[in-house]
Amino acid sequence: MVEEEPRVSDLQFVGLSTYHAFARSRGRAALDFSHAGGKQ
Q1: Single pTM value for the model
Q2: Which long-range contacts (CB under 8 A, 24 or more apart) does 31-39 make?
């Protein structure tokens, strides 16, 4: 099987995964904040 698609560079991959992890943790923090605010 020959790979014809251009490979994603390591830098792009790391940057993308870091961005997704950051967005995920940010969203989770926002959810926790809203839940805590709703309880109090």
Answers
A1: 0.42
A2: none
> How far is 13 from 36, CA to CA, in rounded Å?
34
Q: pLDDT digits over 1-40, tens only?
A: 677 766 778 888 888 888 888 888 888 887 777 767 665 4
Place of tokens 């809203």: 34
- Rounded distance, CA 33 to CA 8, Å? 36
Tell me how far apart the alpha carbons of residues 14 and 22 are, in angstroms, rounded to a whole number.
12
Residue tagged 């251009």 (tokens): 6
Structure tokens at 36: 């805590």
